[in-house]
Structure prediction request, 233 residues.
Amino acid sequence: MKTTLLTLLFAFSIIQFNAQCSENGTNFGNNTTTASYNITGDVSITLNTNNTVTLNLGSNFSTASGPDVRAYFVNSEGKTNAEIRNSLISNLDNFQFGIINPNGAQTFTTAIPAGKDITKFDTIFFYCLQFNAFWDFGSITPFNSDSCSVLSVEDTFLSKISFYPNPTKDKIHFSNPTSVSAEIRIFTILGKQVFYQSKITEKTIDVSSFNKGIYIIKLDTDGKSKTQKLVIN
Prediction:
């Protein structure tokens, strides 16, 4: 039983974190005031299938040590390098990866905040939030549906499929286009399939006969998957 559970969770982790596309950061060295703050080494951004992005800092990554140096993903909105360099982070369209170490390999994964269009984000921005001090920034080629399969039409459909309420006692309701050709499966936490439907044709599924507990809902379309936890109480 434990083996089945671990196998299922491992499979779901592969589905959720299987990276589809990555872009390298370039053109660092924009701190013209304090050269030691400038970023050197390998920096890249990966867009994942589960609506998250990962910042990868290579083993050769290096910058000056600071008390609270954080990495951000920024939508430059057409600003010049000077305008970005002179902006407070609070004045930039951004979301945060986390506090970095000054040297060595590091990885940060964060969910794309609701309402953020990831195809607009093009700048990796390093900033000391404690002192409101600019560190450095570099650019990436923005992700788009032509170069990145995560942003394909099928994935856009999957991202729109959601259900409620959660937790529930008897029914779940899907808010999605009824034309989406997505298979739906529901598994117990131990990996037993308890529900299957070849296409979401109805917006309501009756789960009143299920035992109380935690379940996994898995949606599949054209080789792409989305999973989410369901609680029945």
